[in-house]
Design a protein that fits this description.
GO molecular function, one term: single-stranded DNA binding
Largest sheet: 2 strands, parallel
Protein name: SWIM-type zinc finger 7 associated protein 1
Structural class: alpha+beta
Strand order of the largest sheet: 1-2
Number of helices: 4
Distance between the termini: 35 Å
Number of strands: 4
Order of helices and strands: HEHHEHEE
Length: 151
């Protein structure tokens, strides 16, 4: 028997509200007979947090939304971990991976100045940062360095 994922479900929520509903529904699906997920991945979190025309006056709304979705992801992963342990389906915890592209990339202070990213850092244990090597020769594929840092 393999320790890898046996079932993958893709979901493409159209809005932050749909994303929140999809994540919240994982609590309900774990109550059924199917094995609960051991990994939750959210790609492009910035797309759910940024709305067209968002400026400094709505920055607080972005931070609040980031805290809301992060807390729900954290709570859901904890719940699913408990469910996995109770069913002896897995000794490994449910993990969350979320990608977020900072608007502040390339600005003075870099990603560390992004107020939304600072909110996300409070909920996630590790940050993986991809840094492009802008000094290399121009090409379609730029070399990147990958940095994992505990928060």
């Amino acid at each position: 028997m393999s320790d890898g994922p046996t079932k993958i479900k893709f979901s493409y929520p159209r809005s932050l509200e749909d994303l929140l509903q999809d994540v919240a529904s994982l609590h309900e699906s774990a109550s059924g007979s199917a094995a609960p997920p051991s990994l939750i991945m959210v790609d492009g979190l910035e797309g759910y947090l940024r709305r067209p025309g968002v400026s400094g006056s709505l920055q607080q709304a972005q931070q609040s939304s980031a805290a809301h979705v992060s807390a729900l992801l954290y709570d859901t992963a904890a719940f699913l971990t408990q469910t996995l342990e109770e069913r002896a389906a897995s000794l490994a915890p449910c993990r969350v991976i979320a990608s977020f592209q900072s608007e502040w990339e390339g600005h003075a202070g870099g990603d560390s100045s992004d107020p939304v990213l600072s909110v996300l850092d409070r909920y996630f244990q590790v940050r993986c940062t991809l840094d492009r090597d802008w000094n290399s020769a121009p090409s379609v594929l730029l070399p990147c360095s990958v940095v994992f840092s505990p928060l």
